[in-house]
Amino acid sequence: MATRPQTGSDYLASLDDGRVVVHDGERVARVAEHPAFAGTASTIASLYDALHEEGSDALLAPIGEAPGGDGVTHAFWTVPRSHDDLRAQREAIRAWQARTHGWLGRTPEFMACIFTSMAAHAPFFGRFERNVRAALERDQRAVTHYAQALVNPPVDRELPPDEVGDVFVHVVDETDEGVVLRGAKAVVTGAATAQRLFVSHFGGEVQTDAFAIAASVAVGSPGVRVYTRGTPFRPDQPLARRFQEHDALVVFDDVLVPWDDVLIRDAETMLAFNRGAVGWNARLAFQAATRLEAKLERIAGLAVRAAEIMGTDQRRGTQAALGELIAFRHTVAGLRDAMIEQAAASGESILPGVDAAMAFSALAPDAYSRMRVSLETTLSSALAHLPVPLDALGSPDVAPIEPLLRGSGGADARERLEVVGELWDAIGTGFGARHELYERSYWGQPERTHVGILGLARADGRVARWQARRHS
């Protein structure tokens, strides 16, 4: 039995599993070598290799209850049972996110939020309790790289999911071997470079057992097809080159899912699961806030240096804009740490504080968009003034003008193009625009989050207590 997670080479080899990926309308022969996916696949492989480097202990935690455990995994893939466990998980997530600067939304620890939450409440899943526990044991040992297939395609949203059987994923047959799935899931971010899919329903609430399905499905399963469309990028886009994620349409064409991989199979359990019965959304917010913290730190560092290079860093308006950006970072980090301090027992685990988690999910989408607009306003012409690509420096036609490409604050042409070029990729290119949409859509329709916050405050009596104070 493996005592340490997979390596980067193990991960890359796993992508050559016969999977069907169609990119820009053409079948991809080998995902790990295709220009659209190679950078991201290589970056993910480097995260796995980090688990095997000297000094990787901060990333790892023991598996099992025996002294010393019977192996190690990324700390977020363990069930937390104390505030200190959550702090260790925060540091493990931070360590990986420091390598990607938060630009990969679906790093391999991401889906641990669901599987650890399910395992902590395993009896809730009835006849599939054993499957839930076994799935966590398998995936935490490998640190399996998942994509989540939750979102229904944007069609017939006025109807219950159960009435859109020609498009939405549902069970068409049950056999001795397992269940047969047919339909599609949209916005399955990173599916082409994932190892498995968590297939479930979220959003519209299913009412019939035919549509009540949650399962773990290998991307290379017969009948699974992944469709992606490229966001073109140039070789001199430093972020897109390493971190481009594609939001896929995944089609299930009568896919047989073995019974051992089925986790939910009835509407009642599905409804309760999506309404927070096992608390996976709070775990998701905990990971997402730590990822966003890393992204904002990178952007803030670049933005301050860009203002110095422009020579505008002493202007009061510029300082205010940069301070607001840093305040956004502080707020995200503070809410994440509040999730630790507010954590409470839940099943066999301790659950990050729901109030702070929901506040983060309500704040982040609009704040990220405001940050992007603020940087476009503050840095303005610097973002537009990129007359040559970085790799052209020193060429016969460019070398004579390199002194004209310098910046203020002691920056030469190379530093100016590096700093401003990365910021342009972060907010101005197709990569940057897609990331704004990603952050805005991370929690689904923002209105749903706000309605949920109000509903929770009413349900636990807080609204009534606040109203009663008028009369005291």
From TrEMBL:
An MF annotation (GO) of this entry: oxidoreductase activity, acting on the CH-CH group of donors
A Pfam family the protein falls into: HpaB_N
Gene3D superfamilies: 4-hydroxybutyryl-coa dehydratase, domain 1 (1.10.3140.10), Butyryl-CoA Dehydrogenase, subunit A, domain 2 (2.40.110.10), Butyryl-CoA Dehydrogenase, subunit A, domain 3 (1.20.140.10)
UniProt entry keywords in alphabetical sequence: FAD, Flavoprotein, Oxidoreductase
Domain HpaB/PvcC/4-BUDH N-terminal: from-to ranges: 7-264
InterPro entries in alphabetical order: Acyl-CoA_Oxase/DH_mid-dom_sf, AcylCo_DH-like_C, AcylCoA_DH/oxidase_NM_dom_sf, HpaB/PvcC/4-BUDH, HpaB/PvcC/4-BUDH_C, HpaB/PvcC/4-BUDH_N
Top-level taxon of origin: Bacteria
Oxidoreductase among keywords: yes
Binding residue positions for FAD: 189
Domain HpaB/PvcC/4-BUDH C-terminal, residue spans: 279-465
Record's keyword annotation contains Ribonucleoprotein: no
Protein's recorded name: Pyoverdin chromophore biosynthetic protein pvcC
